[in-house]
Every structure is written in C-alpha cells, then in structure tokens.
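Good morning,

Attaching, inline, the backbone tokens for the sequence recovery test we're adding to the shared suite. The designed sequence is right after.
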C-alpha cells in the first residue's frame, strides 16, 4: 500500500495560524513517515505541533470551490448558494400530481408516473415534502427501485439534508455507507452537501453525520479532511462524533493522533464530556505519560465531568501496565471508598474481588467500610461475604458490627449464615469477649433461635418420613395428617 501525507484540506492558513493537519495513511491503516516512535523516552511524542507538520507538507493548490470564496469577518468561508430553476409547464404539472399522490400515499397511481421521472422533477418533489422525513425517505426508496440510475449525487445530498434536519441520523449514516462513500470521491460528497445546504435550509448536523460515518468506517483520512473543511465554513462536529473518531483511533493504538485531535477540539471550543476525558486519560497511559494522565484525571471536576468507574479503570490499567502497582492499589482503594460513600456496595465489592484476584487486599478499615455500606443497604448477605473474608484472614471484627450482621441475618431467616459466621469466628478465637452483657444476651437469643430451627427441621423430617411411608396419599385422612404435623 502506498503511504501518503494527509493534509486536512492541504495546508490552509488563517492569518498566522496554520490550519489543522497531521500524518495519516491512505485507507484504513495509519502510518507516520516522518516520525519514528521510540516508546519509553521523551522522544516518544509521535505527533509534532501542527505548525511544524505544516512546514514539511506540500502546499498544492486546493482544487475545491473553497479557494474561489472570500472569507467573511468571522474568518469562515461563506456558504455558496445553488438555486434550482422553478418548474414550468409539464414539469410543474407532473410535480403537483406526484406530490398529491404522495401526500395521499397512493403508490399505485404513483407507479404509473415512474416513466416520467427525471432528476429535476425528483429534486422538486423532495423539496416539496422535505418537512416529512419519513415520506421523503419512502419516496427516495421508491425512486431507487423504479429508476435507480436517476439517483444522482445531488438527489442524495437533498435526502441527506432532509434526514439529518429531521434527526434521522442513523438512516442518513446508513445511506452514506451504502450509496455514497464506496462510490464517490470525498470532496465531491462534501461539495454536493455544501452547495445544496441553503437550498434545503439544512442544519450543520449533515456534515457531522458525514464526519462520524467516516470515523465509524475507520476512514481517518477522509474524516480528518471533512473536519477541516467543516471548520472552514464555520461548522463543528458534536462531541459524540468526536468521541467516535477518537475511539476508532484508540482501537488502532493511535493515541498520538487522539491527543493531537483533542488539542484541536480545545482550540475550537468543543466542550468534552466524561467519555472524551476518559479516552484522553487512556491515550496518555498508552503513551506512558502517566503524570499527564493523572493531571487530566484530577482536572476532570474543573471541566465539569465527575470521574466515573471507567476513569479510574483507565488510570489503574495504565499504572499496572507500567508496574506501578502501589499507585494502582491506592487508586482502587480510593474508588472503593467513593462507592461506599455513595452506598454502592455492589460495585465496591466487585472492585474488592478484582483486587483479590490480582493478589492485593485492602486495609481493615476499607473492609469494614464495605461491610458498613452493605449494612446501610440492608444487604446482610453481602456483609456476611466480606465478614467471612476477614475471618479467613484472621482479622478481628468489632463486636457491634458482628452483632448487627447476626441480627440482620436472623431477621431475614438466614440462620445458616449466622451459624457459619459464628463457627468461623469461634474457631479462630475472634469472638468478642464474653464480658459484654449485650453479647451474652444476643448469644442466648441466638442459641434459642437455633434450637427452635433444629426442632423444626427434625419435625419436618419426621413428617416427610411418615408421608413417604403411606402408599396412597389420596386416601389419607386429614385428621391423621394433622396429628402427624402436631
């Protein structure tokens, strides 16, 4: 595969600012022909400043309509306006009749008009029904079936404007993937959308959909060029589309380009969300820049994004991959404390289990905090699980905590768990001292409850034994059964 330099939209300049560009390979794979990565050193920076990259790139003239337009006071290119000739005579009659059939969903009558279709008539019909994206799509699909050779790039552009303005983004992206991107040049698609933008009174989301579709298809060269051209006209992708682009890059381990793109986002004042910042943390970790990752993590609150579990996990994974185990354990402990404070005992327990599998155990205080979170949620079985872990490691448990768990388990009928915990604590000599009157009273109540439980089990076994010895249950006298139970 021949590798080349991607120049966004070549190297476009706004005054002293050099336009956004970086190195990408043609196609789905990425390659840097100017910078050789050296992981583990300061020279591991894979992307230079955009101004430096621009200096070594060719500045061939742009062969698009953009260079024919003068910038306004905002520094953006004005949107060109493409007019469509008003229909007259037979064209007008055909369009009105077809529109009437469409509005009344009379497809049988519409089929009789298929022979008179033309790109000019199709465009006008679409513009007349553009307020109804569902009907517009049905008509477009009908044209595709009746006269597929009439579906020009201009007609595709109009239906894309209609769909995105009607918030049918997935349908628009599907149409791009199926009909346009595999067959048309990226600049042709963008130009068609630009020139029909004002005609359809469209929204910037049409360009956003194009950018996101390229990102999902991992066509990074085209996605980058689309981003650059969007910015020239004053359009910017939404943060979800930027996230899709960065996520696809991270899948190919191109953390360098992710960070470069994030800088461009900041310059354009595209506000990141928590998913964006999580990916930036992950990108820093992949490049071994753990201090930068930690700084970003600490700065999330200032950016209006509270750290999530994924934020912690990204940073923890980075620490572990670089053998900074103590930092990873400290961070996991912080995460457990946070979940306990929010009474999210289930998640705290999951993190504890994950730590245990890796051979690390939290401190006694952290374990008791997890138990406390379970108790606040009335999850006595969860608390018992942690308590068993503590007893197995011969960690003494506060008598008040043990009493609360025993009381909760007994109240919910989990007497077998009480017996198991008591036996384990007694075996390891971790029971509270007998001098505690409260503990003594509870033990007496517990043993009484246990005796009743065993008596009930014995009675139940007797009943089952008697019932199994009776050959014909249908003839069993109800008084006999009552006598057996009593």
């Amino acid at each position: 595969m021949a590798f080349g330099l991607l120049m966004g939209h070549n190297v476009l300049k706004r005054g002293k600012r050099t336009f956004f560009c970086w190195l990408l390979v043609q196609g789905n794979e990425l390659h840097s022909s100017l910078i050789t990565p050296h992981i583990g050193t300061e020279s591991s920076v894979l992307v230079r400043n955009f101004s430096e990259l621009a200096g070594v790139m060719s500045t061939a003239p742009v062969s698009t309509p953009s260079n024919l337009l003068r910038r306004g006071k905002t520094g953006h290119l004005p949107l060109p306006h493409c007019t469509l000739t008003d229909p007259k005579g037979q064209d007008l009659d055909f369009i009105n009749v077809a529109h009437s059939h469409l509005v009344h969903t009379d497809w049988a009558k519409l089929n009789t008009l298929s022979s008179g279709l033309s790109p000019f008539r199709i465009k006008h019909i679409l513009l007349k029904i553009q307020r109804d994206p569902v009907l517009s799509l049905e008509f477009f699909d009908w044209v595709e079936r009746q006269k597929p050779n009439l579906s020009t790039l201009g007609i595709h552009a109009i239906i894309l404007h209609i769909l995105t303005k009607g918030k049918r983004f997935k349908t628009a992206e599907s149409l791009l993937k199926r009909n346009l991107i595999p067959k048309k040049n990226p600049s042709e698609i963008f130009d068609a959308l630009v020139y029909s933008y004002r005609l359809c009174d469209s929204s910037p989301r049409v360009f956003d959909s194009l950018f996101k579709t390229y990102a999902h298809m991992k066509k990074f060269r085209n996605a980058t060029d689309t981003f650059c051209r969007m910015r020239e006209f004053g359009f910017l992708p939404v943060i979800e589309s930027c996230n899709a682009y960065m996520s696809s890059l991270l899948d190919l381990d191109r953390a360098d380009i992710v960070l470069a793109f994030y800088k461009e986002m900041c310059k354009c004042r595209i506000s990141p969300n928590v998913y964006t910042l999580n990916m930036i943390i992950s990108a820093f970790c992949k490049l071994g820049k753990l201090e930068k990752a930690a700084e970003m993590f600490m700065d999330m609150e200032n950016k209006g994004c509270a750290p999530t579990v994924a934020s912690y996990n990204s940073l923890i994974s980075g620490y572990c991959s670089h053998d900074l185990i103590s930092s990873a354990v400290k961070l996991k402990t912080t995460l457990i404390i946070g979940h306990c404070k929010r009474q999210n005992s289930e998640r705290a327990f999951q993190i504890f289990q994950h730590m245990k599998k890796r051979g690390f155990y939290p401190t006694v205080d952290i374990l008791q905090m997890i138990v406390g979170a379970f108790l606040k949620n009335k999850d006595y079985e969860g608390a018992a699980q942690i308590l068993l872990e503590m007893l197995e490691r011969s960690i003494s448990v506060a008598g008040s905590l043990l009493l609360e768990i025993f009381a909760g388990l007994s109240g919910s009928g989990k007497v077998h768990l009480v017996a198991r915990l008591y036996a384990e604590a007694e075996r390891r000599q971790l029971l509270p001292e007998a001098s505690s009157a409260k503990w003594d009273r509870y033990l007496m109540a517990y043993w009484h409850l246990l005796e009743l439980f065993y008596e009930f089990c014995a009675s139940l076994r007797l009943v089952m034994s008697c019932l199994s010895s009776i050959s014909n249950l249908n003839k069993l006298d109800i008084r006999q059964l009552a006598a057996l139970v009593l």
